[in-house]
Every structure is written in C-alpha cells, then in structure tokens.
Design goal:
Blueprint lengths: L3 H4 L3 H5 L25 E12 L12 E15 L3 E14 L7 E13 L4 E13 L4 H4 L9 E14 L4 E14 L7 E13 L4 E14 L2 E16 L3 E14 L2 E19 L2 E14 L4 E15 L4 E14 L2 E18 L4 E14 L5 E16 L1
Antiparallel strand pairs: 1-2, 1-18, 2-3, 3-4, 4-5, 5-6, 6-7, 7-8, 8-9, 9-10, 10-11, 11-12, 12-13, 13-14, 14-15, 15-16, 16-17, 17-18
C-alpha cells in the first residue's frame, strides 16, 4: 500500500517530524454561512490576546507563548421572495512573541444559497474554502481530532434537496464532497464523498420519526474505503423548551488495508437539550465510522459532548462546554486515540455591537502506548459587529 507507511504510524511518532505552525488553544469553530433573513451587509472584527502553554502541541511540556490574533469577516446577503444568497470572505493574522516562525495569515471564503422551486421543494447549495490552522477547523475539532496547529486547507461543497410530501412528511437528498490537506507531509491528506437519503414524519405535535441511508467513499492518497449506513431516528419535545433525540442503526464499512473484507458495527446516539429561565444545557453521545483526517485511518469514533450556558445578567453570560472522544481502528488493535477538549468563558456585552469575552481552554490527546500531550490556554477577546442595509 502506497500511503500505509504514513497512515499506520503512531500519533506522536507521526507528528514528531512536523514543522508545526502554532495556533492559540482557544480554537474557534468555523461554521457554514447561514442564509436566514438578515441585513445585506455585516462586518465582524475581533482582536484576541491569548496564552498557550504548549503552542506546538507536539510533545509533553512543549514551549508556551503569547499570541495576538486579529480577525476580519465581511458578509453580503441577498434575499428574494423565493431564495437567498450569502457571500463571505475572512482573514486572520497570528503573531507570536517568541515562537515567531509560527506567525501566519489565514483566509477563507464561503458561498451559500437556497431556492424555493415550489411551496414543497427547496434546494440548498454551499461552497466553503478555508486555509487555517488544524485547531481552527470545526470539521476536525468537533470530531475529536486535536491535531497540531499545522496549516490546513479544507474545501467543502454541499447540495441538499428537500421535498414536503405532505404537511407532516419530508424527503431529502444530500450530497457532499469534502477535502482536507496539510502543509506538514507526515500528516496524510484525505477526502470524503457522501450521498444521503432521509425521510422524516411528524407523528404528533411532540413526536417525530425518521429513517436514513448514507453512502460514503473515503479516500486517502491512492486508497479508498466505502461505507453504507442505515439508521432510524426519534425526536420528542417536552413542552416548549426541552427535546430528546435517539438515533440507532448500523454501518457496513471496508478497511483501507483490506477492501475485500467488509465489517459491520452498530452506530447511533442520543441527546437532550433544555432551557429554563437563564439556564441552557445540551448533551449528546454519538457513535459512528469516519475518516481520521491526518492519520490516514478509518476509525470507529465515540463522542460525548455537553454544554451549559447561564445568563448571569442581561449583559453578562457564562458558557462551559466539553468534548470527550474515543477512537479505534478496527484493522489495528494497537491503535486507541483519546481526546479531551474543554472551554469555559465569560462574555460581557457593552452594546449591541461591542462585546468583551474571556476564556480558559484545556486540550489533551493520548494514543496508547505513547505519552499524552496536553495544553492549557487563556485569552481575552474584543468583538465588534456592524450590520447595515
């Protein structure tokens, strides 16, 4: 196998040769632009001063440093009676005090739109390109992949078609192509092509059920793996401020090292969210098969995530969130990856457009039998938003 010598190396050994570009520990989740009703123009400016105890995140006890980050984003939205369009461009600059070779400028662009063909049929299209640190990509951090902050390029194209068969029943088709590559050669690039068909039906005002089928082709260099997933879903609403979700199914998949041998594993998850007064809580468990970008492995991944928010006053809010992940390679019993990502923060709004926030972050990654790598970080954020017609 051409790329297998890279893909099968242990996590610390794989990253030992990486000339990493560092990023602050307070990773920002980058999301797809929304096409909901809004002002035509939106400017977002952020200034951040932070400290990270292990900026390179390559080995235990790595160097710490202070980092200044400046972000700018400009959105332009168009809305019509049957559709919406949003274009967005962004840039980020990172400046380090002592690890100056890690200074970097990152950028991204997004386009998203929706069109109502008829009262029953809607199509949505989106395209996203981003070059930034791996620690800044939500597609990686939300999947429990806490990679060193190397420069990473990600491109995602997505199309979705939904049709309301009746007032209570909806059928949707989703297509997506995602590519991720790294500037550090030991990290293995990869891509995924996904096609999914889903059905949902409202049983009552409080209960809804659904079923879905998904085909995914995962590609690492000159190798590939196909997966097929069938699942069912149930959602229940408690009053107006609490929800419970359950998903159960099975995935049949191939290993990158043995395409002829297919395996089947249970997948699914459960979650709940509630809001009362000034409090909000959300918890979720997921088990699924995916491609571990950078490591060149197909893995079975289990994630537990939770978030708690409290509005202390009308202007001051507290937020605590964490993600714990466990990953294993069915084709390599010696591989076990455990990750922890915790963020706590306070945010004070001076006005509708100006806010100040502070955060503390803890990250840890461990692959047996190597020593764990961890870091802590703290940061201050000053954010400004301005919308105009």
């Amino acid at each position: 196998m051409t790329g297998n010598s890279k893909a099968r190396r242990g996590f610390p050994a794989l990253l030992a040769g990486v000339l990493a570009w560092a990023a602050p520990a307070f990773a920002q989740v980058v999301s797809e632009p929304t096409t909901s009703a809004r002002q035509p123009w939106l400017l977002a400016l952020d200034a951040r001063e932070g400290w990270d105890s292990n900026v390179r995140f390559l080995e235990p006890g790595g160097p710490g440093d202070l980092v200044t980050r400046l972000d700018a984003r400009l959105d332009r939205a168009w809305s019509g009676p049957r559709g919406n369009l949003l274009l967005s461009g962004s840039g980020q600059g990172f400046v380090y005090r002592t690890e100056s070779d890690l200074n970097h400028f990152a950028y991204g662009a997004d386009a998203a739109g929706s069109f109502l063909f008829s009262p029953r049929a809607t199509i949505r299209l989106s395209e996203s390109f981003r070059t930034t640190y791996a620690s800044e990509l939500g597609a990686l951090t939300q999947a429990g992949l806490l990679l060193p902050p190397v420069v990473t390029r990600a491109n995602t194209a997505r199309g979705d078609f939904s049709y309301n068969v009746s007032r209570l029943t909806t059928v949707s088709l989703d297509l997506q192509h995602e590519m991720v590559s790294f500037d550090a050669p030991p990290l293995v690039p990869g891509s995924k092509i996904t096609a999914g068909l889903a059905f949902s039906h409202e049983l009552s005002r409080t209960d809804a059920v659904g079923a879905g089928y998904q085909f995914q082709r995962m590609i690492v260099e000159d190798e590939h793996s196909n997966t097929q997933t069938l699942d069912t879903r149930w959602t229940h609403t408690f009053g107006t401020s609490a929800h419970a979700r359950i998903r159960a199914g099975a995935t049949r998949f191939q290993l990158l090292t043995a395409l002829a041998a297919s395996r089947t594993t249970a997948v699914g998850g459960a979650g709940a969210d509630a809001r009362w007064g000034r409090h909000a809580i959300d918890a979720q468990f997921d088990r699924y098969v995916d491609l571990a970008y950078g490591l060149g492995r197909v893995r079975i991944n289990e994630l537990v995530s939770a978030r708690y928010s409290l509005l202390l006053t009308s202007d001051l809010g507290f937020d605590l969130r964490g993600v714990q992940g466990w990953g294993q390679d069915p084709g390599d019993a010696s591989f076990a990856l455990t990750t922890t990502d915790v963020v706590a923060g306070l945010r004070y709004a001076f006005s509708r457009n100006l806010a100040l926030a502070g955060s503390y972050t803890f990250r840890r990654i461990s692959e047996t039998p190597f020593r764990p790598v961890s870091s802590q970080g703290a940061a201050l954020f000053l954010s400004y938003r301005q919308a105009w017609p």
